[in-house]
Amino acid sequence: MRSTVVSMFVAACCGLTLLCSPAALAAEAVPAQASMQKDSIVLGAGCFWGAEKRYAAIPGVLNAVSGYADGKGVEPTYRAITATARRMDPNNHAEVVKVSFDPAKVSLRQILQVYFEQHDPTQLNRQGNDVGTQYRSIILVQNASQQALAEAVKAQYQQLLSAAGFGAITTQIKLLSEFFPAEDYHQDYLVKNPDGYCPDHSTGVRFAPTAVAATDNSALLKGKQLLVLEAEGYCPYCEKFRKDVLEQYRGTIPVTTRTSAQLQGLTLTTPTFATPTLYFLQDGKEVFGHQGYLNPKEFYQALGAFQLGDSEAFNVAFDKGTDSRFCKQYEIFKNTPDGVFIDKLSGLPLFDTRDRFDSGSGWLSFTRPVAGSVVELPDRSYGMERTEIRAKVSGIHLGHVFPDGPGGLPRYCINATVLDFVARQQISAGVNNR
After folding, report:
1. Would residue 327 show up in a list of annotated catalytic residues for this protein?
2. Cys-Cys with 321: which of 86, 118, 153, 316 at CB 3.0–4.6 Å?
3. Same domain, 137 and 244
4. Residues near 39 by Cβ (< 8 Å), separated by ≥ 6?
């Protein structure tokens, strides 16, 4: 199941957050001592990649090592435990993490609270789409003292889960027999592979939840909106999406970012466990959504479907279509006031009225584009040798360039339906700037 999820980009989007509140950790803190002590516990909460990094982020944790434990008659290797025949084998090893910590800086209770909060302990032999006994929820203790504490924390969390409408905890609590470190490539996996698989299957139930002020989402209840779900903590692919897409986007559909705790009043169907997740909203209701990072081409393809629908503009932009000669939009745009023609999707400037001329062709014509705004590509369709023009950022098809412009200049023959117009006076006033 893991490969299926990865192929759907869920692998690319997880927020590695510390799931126990700082206030709760502070309340449990043990006064610092001069000499460092060391204790450890072995925890299984599904895929060990994300779990390992979450534990490692807890202040006071000295080391977090991925490995295998609690199996009988099964070789403690990744290849062996993932064999099809072992999928529901009760004797299979579990994917676990050995957490070594300084009890002078972080208590075992704190670590166990993070453990329960960072996965769904009510799921039996699975976590989300990861199904099998290797993903079972399990705590492997070293002694009776650890076991008693683990049972107590489990009982406390069960009360919280039950109050929130969840079922019974399936977490096993057993004495550790032997821990087998996983292969080297599994260790610090998300440090080596920051876009690696690490879904968040937490229930959202906390031992000491901090009060979260209700978020005003009234603006998202009106018209078309883009909502980006981001993690509360560090999310590499959230940052990448911001840098690759949002930093250059100037489109007419507003973009809002939220965390999973800030979605009040919205009607969403795409699950919120992965970040980034992009929601396309109409009057506060999801039209469609996508979990995971989208590159600019993928983003604008999805945005085009949402914004343009089944229209001539969509056909031109993404199927290399062509406006009808002297189309309605051409007639509107051929004599505009002084200003700039912008990409209908990205909102970025493409052509200036100062470079516009009447070619008599029935399509908008310019002697040049705005510097750096377009790319030129060879086009041999229909048995012709032409040069296609595409918007550099959104990638949409704009038209073609020919060498027959005025005074020996090029003629950029551009489809009007994929453009919008902004008067220069509006640009000066910052109307088109976000």
Report:
1. no
2. 316
3. no
4. 100, 101, 102, 103, 108
